[in-house]
Write a structure and sequence with these properties.
The chain has one domain (3-154): 3-Layer(aba) Sandwich (Rossmann fold), CATH 3.40.50. The protein is 40% helix and 14% strand. The protein has helices at 15-25, 50-58, 74-78, 87-94, 100-104, 131-154, and strands spanning 3-9, 32-38, 81-84, 106-108. Strands 2-1-3-4 form a 4-stranded parallel beta sheet, sandwiched between helices. The chain is globular. Bound molecules: 4-nitrophenyl phosphate. Residues 9-15, 38, 42, 123, 125 line the site of 4-nitrophenyl phosphate.
C-alpha cells in the first residue's frame, strides 16, 4: 500500500503546492502519493500563485497543473501524514479532527528539522518577491529530511 502525505497551508496556492511538488520529486510515485490542500476556501480550483510556479520552474519542477482544494475531515482518513505549514493552519486542521488518531497524523512541517519548536513557514502571499525563494529553500531542506525518513520506514 502506498504511503500518503498531505501538505496543508491556508490558500493552497503558495506554500503547500511547493511542498507537494518538492516532496513528490524526492519520492517514487510507485510507493508514495503526495497532495496538498488549503484550510481556507478562497482559491478553490485555482492554479498555484504565479510566483510559486516561477520559483519551482527555476528549480526544475512543474507545479502549474495543480488545482487548489479545501482540506476536509475526509483527509484524516485518506492520508497517513498531514503537514501544516504554520501554527494557524495546524490549529485549523486539528479543529476538524474527529479523534486522537487523526490528531496524531498532523505535524508542523518544520518540526521535522527543528523538533518541538513549532517554527512557521512564513506566508509569502502578501510579502516581497524574495519570500518565495526563501520559502522554497526551507521546504526543499525539510522535504529532503521527510523523504529520507519515509524511505527508511518504507523498507
Ligand atoms: P498560502 O498563501 O496559504 O501559502 O497558499 C496564501 C494565499 C492566499 C491567501 C493567504 C495565504 N489569501 O488570503 O488569499
Amino acid at each position: 500500500m502506498k504511503t500518503k502525505i498531505l501538505m496543508v497551508c491556508l490558500g493552497n496556492i503558495c506554500r503547500s503546492p511547493l511542498a507537494e511538488g518538492i516532496l513528490a520529486s524526492k519520492l517514487s510515485p510507485e510507493h508514495f502519493t503526495v497532495d496538498s490542500a488549503g484550510t481556507g476556501d478562497y482559491h478553490i480550483g485555482k492554479n498555484p500563485d504565479h510566483r510559486s510556479i516561477a520559483i519551482a520552474k527555476e528549480k526544475g519542477l512543474d507545479i502549474s497543473h495543480q488545482q487548489a482544494r479545501q482540506f476536509t475531515a475526509q483527509d484524516f482518513i485518506d492520508y497517513d501524514y498531514i503537514y501544516a505549514m504554520d501554527g494557524s493552519n495546524y490549529q485549523n486542521i486539528i479543529a476538524l479532527a474527529p479523534d486522537a488518531n487523526s490528531k496524531e497524523k498532523v505535524k508542523m512541517i518544520l518540526n521535522e528539522l527543528f523538533e518541538g519548536e513549532n517554527v512557521d513557514v512564513p506566508d509569502p502571499y502578501f510579502g516581497l518577491e524574495n519570500g518565495f525563494p526563501i520559502v522554497y529553500n526551507m521546504l526543499d531542506e525539510v522535504c529532503e529530511t521527510i523523504a529520507e525518513n519515509l524511505k527508511k520506514n518504507h523498507l
